[in-house]
Amino acid sequence: MRPIAAHSLGSVFHVWRLAIADRQFGWVRSRQLRDKHHTKLMFLLVSLCLRIAVERVPRRSRQFGNGTLVLLASCLIAACDQGPPKNPPAPPPASVVVAPVSLEDLSSERSFTGRIEATDKVQIRARVQGFLKSRLFEEGAKVEAGELLYEIEPEPFELAVQQAEANVASAAAAETFAQQTFERTEELVRRNTSSRASLDEAQSALAQAQATLKARKAELQTAQLNLSYTKITAPISGRAGRSEYSVGNLVGPESDPLVLLVSQDPVYANFPVPQWLLVQVRKAGQGPESVYVELRLADGSEYEHTGSVVFTDVQATTGTDSVLVRAKFPNPEGLLVDQQLVNVQVIRKKPEKKLVISQSALLLDQQGAYALVVDDANKVQIKRITVGVQRGPLIVVESGLEAGDRVIVSGHQKARPGAEVAPQMADSASGGLAKAAGATSP
Q: Taking 90 as the threshold, does the pLDDT of residue 292 lie above it?
């Protein structure tokens, strides 16, 4: 190959290497520069082919070959001088779904963490010492007031009653004899046949006999009372806990409680309220009658019965500067258990006007909460907002938005701040919120 052809081939290889590097590694960033390299590569390839063809033409025909080469080269140069291709037309605005910010009647509420407390809770203890004869209830079962729970062996106490009855009979006989002696002595003194001293002795003996009889009667009552204590009954209605003693164990007043008895209906919900919040409520002139209380259980469900505030403690807790508040709830199904942890919601009876948006319109980043708003020119704007409590699919907006603002509830991934969009309004305010709540936010 001649030097001219070799030079052309080297130029082709150099431009081809730049084109490959641009495609693989992105060395050539400009689109116009890339198109220029590709055009130059085609020009050199055609020139090389023409040059080789001319080299093979006999010398007498070289004049025609050179002219042809010049003509083709001029065409290629003219093609290379053409400007870059025109930009494609702009895509249409992205389609998004919007819903208006609405003003709804909502009842303001506060959430607290509380615990359930039984209205009555009794530790059942043995009043007399003895061996347990029987247990007459099922652990965890509901018992009624007066129902028999335990029985202690009664035989020693029955014997004590019999002995006390005998002592009473003996004391009664002694009292009768002393009474008769006193009456005879009194008659003799009246006839002056007996001294006054003998009458005093008879009167003293009668008084002693009467006192002894009272003491024996008291001993009998004590024995009978101890005998009744061998039958342990439920003082209140409720559920019985786990029995701490089994049949045959020795129990007595010094023993641990036999079982815990807890009432079921109604129950209390105790929750701490910060002192600053109580001060605000009292300054506003609001009392317990202006609110009602709801409970949320551990599984997230709402307790179907509502309660009322019945007690506010008279002193604050020094560690937390909070005041204990107590609400009373009916518990006919027995869903609430003593010491159960619940979420307490105190709700005002009179609703208030609040700005709300759908939950799907709320977005978060490192700076906080915001929403994408479509203005009158259908341009997307970012608005930072302050949110309040959540009420179902709605979220209360404290600041940052106004009633009527169109917020994007679907299609966030296609909306860019400052870009124009094609908003599609939801069917209605309520329907749009419902649709937005059910939509999946990207």
A: no
Q: Is residue 91 part of a domain?
A: no
The model's pTM is 0.53
Checking phi first, is residue 322 left (phi over 0); if not, alpha (psi -120 to 50) or beta? beta
> Which of 36-50, 68-82, 116-130, 384-398 holds the top average pLDDT?
116-130
In Å, what is the CA distance from 101 to each residue of 245, 365, 378, 405, 441? 65, 21, 16, 5, 17
> 254 φ, ψ to 5°?
-90, -5
pLDDT tens digits, one per residue of 24-37: 444 444 455 555 55
Give the SS3 label for residue 113: strand
pLDDT in tens, 296-318: 888 888 898 988 888 888 888 88
Same domain assignment for residues 220 and 146: yes
Instruction: Give residue 389's domain range.
Output: 97-105+353-438
Extract the tokens encoding 414: 């296609």
CATH code, domain with 406:
2.40.420.20
Burial zone of 70 (CB within 10 Å; 0-12 exposed, 13-18 middle, 19+ buried): exposed
